[in-house]
Specification:
heterodimer, A: 272 residues, mainly alpha, Cytochrome Bc1 Complex, Chain D, domain 2, 2 domains, B: 644 residues, two-stranded antiparallel sheet, 6 strands, 3% strand
């Protein structure tokens, strides 16, 4: 359900229910929140969330819990009191001894788990939308990237028949050249996609086509991976430079088609 | 042994160590070479000293250097280098320090003037004292601002002479008014500060008002210089086709075409708005940190009560200014995007986008810190236990929104994580990385913070209004309706039928609903708690020390945030001094790594806090007791001295 791993989520909800029922004290709630959220971030999603994001979430959780525990003198006393009792009252000696063994053991296990984790290339933050150049030269024609627009877009209003022709041409070009990687439905899941890392762009995504001007998409189609700026390497993109295989008109047509197919409008110049 | 004697001993030891080191170095240098015995013998025999190969070599080198210097033609330097640190880092740190002090000097008079005005209207002396306490910080800070301003100007002239000359070519007509305004700023500032209690209240308020007018005008001029570097012109629909065209303020060669367009350029006004609001938030937080510093030093209840109240007011000013700041930030970012797709993508989708994750973390911390301080503030008032139960829910809302805001659109992930996700974005969490979610989160954060403030305001009071239940319920309904609207627009933004432009425009009704709710709830709250029955006395000075550290933490976060975002705005130009016009061809013309940039920001913040510590210390001297002799013997000796 919504990508959640119910095997983990439901028991966590059940434990929370028990704590409410038993009117658990503040310290118990704080411990449950910390451990429960750790378990949720670690195992609660069918597709695991990256460690970097989980670390951010756990940091926020820890900070919030500290704020809560110390938000008044009474609450702080209520939180600390069970810990003090555990330390000073003789009847908890066994539990204290267990804790004193468990905590270093947990730290030791953490070190062991870190050191025995399978080796893997470190994570990196890849730029998804590389910054475009200010000017673009394709087939000896130089465009101002800020003002250039798809020359056939206005046919949508002015000449619907011509618009349909360009759209049809774009469709043909897409299914001859692009769908192998970007997929039938443009979800970035074509038959070659699984062999590529990173995977091809998903044009269904609301955060991709609509936020870009059509000149940007034209730049990406025309120049592909070889035309990516040096500023944000490693790009590791397999996108060909289509200017070597297609005419300018064909590239604008396919540009038109991928926007039309997904029901998006290119970002307009000067648009906020 | 007394502490003073130990410190004196350490000082003497340090001085002696320096002298010994210098003498030793001199000795070693003087004795690096000894004449061979053979030469001594020749000199004794002939009466003339024979040059050694070393002496001859040195003389030849000097002659060659002299000849080369004479032969070398004069060439205008484009750049000069700073050893080890580099020119860019030097200018970067100096500009940032200048800006931080300038922001403080511009902000404090704004709220000092408002507080003084409140004191004038209400007739309460404590407001006047508070405004004076804030103003005390200005004098030294003004000197610091001027010092770093001069330092920065010299650094620019020395290290970037050609580029500085170009800026002078464009903006030379603005320099004289700037200097004149700076002179007026000094005049108004010192007359405002030293004239406290010396002028009539209206005259003094007029001085404060003029100080603010002149200060703002100075900032507007300086903003034109820096925004020109980013957007050297304006966008205007020249050919009437409905598409805005770029109207450059300079020709292709960089020659000035229109000073007006260069001054009132595309991003000038967004920066003005953003900076005024941010300055007040920053200034309030620094003033609150000063109050915290004094609170922690205070030795009697009266001082603790005063500085507790001062910290509260400073923090209140900071948070009130902080609430609209995200919207001003969005406006600026949107204008940058509208001006140039390249800059926009670079900022929000490119390298700099990672810094916005850091920004989110800092802003989340600020909201959390501000709310935490308010919750702790409830401890000042007796009988507030029933309000504490709301803290849990507010905290959950704040933590959730914080998490949403800090969720990156594309996560830093290992190869196996990317493979599992099928790309760089997580199938569920990537929705939280988009503007719809971020706008929703920030609006709910603002609403929650406002609710914390409202709860704080109500502690220790019981309304006696005849319609109190109805009014209170109306407030709850307004609050719930605003929250529901914000969430609705946030979720609906993801619907397939909503295009990107409309989705981003949803931010407007979200903002308006939050603002309207805050205004409406306040309008209801004023009569609701007018003449309310006091159920608990506010005991200023009854705050745990951790609350004061929270204030310092907030100030630190604000400062770091300003440094970070200042770098983003400036760094966006990348290899350009003036975007699209003057290319940076210096060895520093590359975008530093994010880690390096954050290190420079951190070091700058540390230097600033070191210096602001000096400002705090100097400002606190005026409140200290006059020096008195420690013993009767010393007093007698001084008395004799004076008599003599």
């Amino acid at each position: 359900m919504y990508g959640l791993n119910l095997v983990v989520v439901l028991p966590l909800v059940a434990v929370a229910g028990v704590l409410v029922w038993r009117r658990a004290n503040t310290l118990t709630w704080l411990l449950f929140s910390l451990i429960g959220l750790w378990a949720f971030f670690k195992f609660g999603f069918i597709v695991p969330i990256p460690q970097s994001v989980a670390t951010i979430y756990l940091g926020i959780t820890g900070l919030a819990l500290v704020c809560y525990a110390s938000s008044s003198r009474e609450r702080l006393a209520e939180t600390v009191q069970p810990i003090v009792r555990l330390i000073v009252e003789p009847r908890y000696r066994l539990a204290l001894a267990g804790l004193l063994i468990a905590l270093p053991a947990l730290a030791a296990y953490n070190v062991y788990a870190d050191l025995t984790a399978p080796l893997e290339a470190p994570g990196f933050g890849r730029e998804i939308h590389p910054p475009p150049p200010t000017e673009l030269t394709v087939h000896d024609e130089t465009l101002d990237m800020a003002t250039a627009d798809n020359p056939y877009l206005h046919y949508h209003e002015d000449d619907p028949e011509a618009y349909e022709q360009h759209l049809e041409n774009g469709r043909r070009i897409y299914y001859e050249n692009c769908f192998w990687c970007h997929g039938d439905g443009m979800g970035g899941d074509g038959m070659f996609a699984h062999g590529l890392n990173p995977v091809p762009s998903n044009f269904n995504d609301v955060g991709t086509l609509p936020i870009l001007q059509s000149s940007y998409v034209h730049w990406r189609i025309a120049k592909g991976a070889p035309g990516l700026p040096a500023g944000g390497t490693p790009w590791d993109s397999a996108m060909p430079a289509w200017e070597k295989f297609l005419t300018t008109e064909e590239m604008w047509d396919v540009n038109l088609f991928i926007y039309d197919f997904n029901g998006y409008q290119p970002r307009a110049l000067g648009q906020h | 042994m007394s502490r003073n004697k130990i410190l004196f001993g350490i000082g003497v030891l340090a001085f002696v160590s320096v002298i010994v080191t210098v003498r030793l170095g001199g000795f070693l240098v003087d004795n690096e070479y000894r004449q061979p015995e053979r030469q001594v013998a020749v000199e004794e025999a002939t009466g003339e000293a024979e040059a050694t190969p070393r002496q001859q070599g040195i003389a030849d080198e000097q002659a060659a250097d002299e000849a080369e210097a004479r032969a070398r033609p004069y060439v205008e330097a484009e750049y000069r280098a700073v050893p080890f640190v580099g020119s860019r880092v030097t200018v970067w740190v100096l500009a940032q320090l200048h800006l931080l002090f300038a922001a403080f000097v511009l902000a404090v008079p704004i709220f000092a003037f408002i507080i003084e005005f409140i004191g004038y209207v209400t007739g309460e002396k404590r407001y006047d004292r508070l405004a004076y306490e804030f103003t005390k910080l200005l004098s030294v800070s003004f000197s610091m601002t001027a010092t770093f301003g001069a330092f920065l100007t010299f650094a620019l002239i020395i290290l970037y002479p050609k580029f500085t000359n170009y800026l002078m070519h464009i903006f030379s007509p603005t320099f004289l008014p700037y200097v004149l305004l700076f002179f007026l700023e000094a005049l108004f500032l010192y007359s405002y500060y030293y004239g406290w209690g010396k002028f009539g209240p209206k005259m003094h308020l007029f001085l404060g008002f003029m100080l603010n007018v002149v200060g703002t005008a100075i900032m507007f001029i300086a903003n034109a210089w820096l925004t020109f570097m980013m957007s050297p012109g304006k966008r205007e629909d020249v050919d009437g086709d409905g598409i805005p065209d770029f109207v450059s303020a300079v020709s292709e060669s960089g020659a000035l075409l229109s000073l007006r367009d260069a001054f009132f350029n595309f991003t000038w006004m967004p920066i003005n708005i953003h900076r005024i609001i941010a300055n007040v938030a920053f200034g309030g937080s620094i003033a609150a940190a000063y109050a915290a510093f004094r609170y922690l030093q205070a030795r009697n209840d009266e001082d603790r009560a005063h500085f507790d109240w001062m910290g509260y007011v400073g923090n209140f000013v900071a948070i009130i200014a902080f609430l609209p700041l995200p919207f001003a930030g969005y406006y600026l970012a949107a204008e940058i995007y509208a001006f140039s797709q390249t800059l926009g993508v670079q900022m929000m989708g490119g390298t700099f986008s990672w810094l916005f994750v850091l920004q989110a973390a800092l802003i989340g911390n600020l909201f959390l810190g501000a709310n935490y301080y308010l919750w702790l503030g409830m401890g000042r008032i007796e009988g507030t236990a029933h309000f504490h139960r709301f803290i849990k829910w507010l905290l959950i809302a704040i933590a959730l929104c914080f998490a949403v805001w800090a969720t990156p659109r594309y996560a830093i992930a290992s190869v196996s994580e990317i493979a599992a996700m099928g790309g760089s974005s997580h199938p569920q969490l990537s929705y939280l990385g988009q503007m719809s979610a971020k706008n929703t989160a920030v609006n709910i954060l603002i609403l929650s913070t406002y609710m914390s403030f409202l709860l704080y305001r109500r502690t220790g009071k019981t309304s006696i209004h005849p319609q109190r239940q109805l009014l209170a319920r109306t407030q709850v309904i307004i609050f719930a309706a605003a929250a529901a609207l914000v969430i609705f627009f946030g979720v609906f933004g993801y619907h397939q039928s909503v295009d990107a432009a409309t989705r981003i425009r949803f931010a407007i009704p979200q903002v308006y609903s939050v603002l309207a709710a805050m205004v409406a709830i306040t309008v209801i709250d004023l009569p609701l708690y007018r003449n309310a029955r006091q159920t608990g006395e506010t005991q200023w000075g009854r705050m745990p020390a951790v609350s004061q550290y929270a204030l310092i933490f907030i100030a630190l976060s604000f400062t770091w945030l300003m440094g970070l975002m200042g770098y983003v705005r400036s760094g966006l130009r990348q290899e350009w001094h003036v975007y699209g016009v003057v290319l940076d061809t210096s060895p520093d013309a590359y975008t530093p790594t994010l880690g390096f940039a954050t290190q420079i920001v951190s070091v700058t913040v540390l230097i600033f806090f070191g210096l602001i510590g000096v400002v705090f210390w100097l400002s606190s001297l005026s409140g200290k007791k006059a020096w008195e002799p420690k013993s009767a013997v010393e007093a007698d000796r001084l008395g004799e001295g004076h008599a003599a």
